[in-house]
Write a structure and sequence with these properties.
Blueprint (H helix, E strand, L loop, with lengths): L1 H4 L4 H12 L5 H8 L10 H11 L3 H9 L8 H28 L5
Length: 108
């Protein structure tokens, strides 16, 4: 969380989180969540989501996904991943068509 806060005003982040959650998230609470000495101070899931939204970052989402063995892609990265998947499918279909045509005695 500390890294995601780089370049952000903690008061603004806590105010944005408070608006998103409809309850007070003070700068002091934000400091406690990010303090290395407070490893036991773990934000609830809704607070983690609000943090990612307030910082325009997906650090906590990525942390959660990594615990599940997953990866998160958003925006253009997600579209590129889907495009790559579709291109691989297309290439495989083209190969299958060529194999079938060869078996049928046709020129690919």
């Amino acid at each position: 969380m500390s890294e995601a806060l780089d370049g952000h005003d903690r008061y603004e982040v806590s105010a944005t989180m408070s608006r998103l959650l409809g309850r007070d998230i003070s700068k002091h609470m934000l400091d406690a969540y990010t303090a290395e000495s407070r490893e036991d101070h773990i934000p609830p899931l809704d607070t983690a989501i609000a943090f990612d939204m307030a910082t325009s970052d997906i650090s906590l989402l990525n942390l959660y996904a990594s615990k599940l063995g997953a990866r998160v892609s958003v925006g253009k990265d997600a579209l590129n991943a889907e495009l790559g998947k579709l291109e691989n499918m297309r290439d495989e279909v083209v190969k299958q068509i060529k194999r079938l045509k060869k078996v049928m005695g046709e020129r690919p």
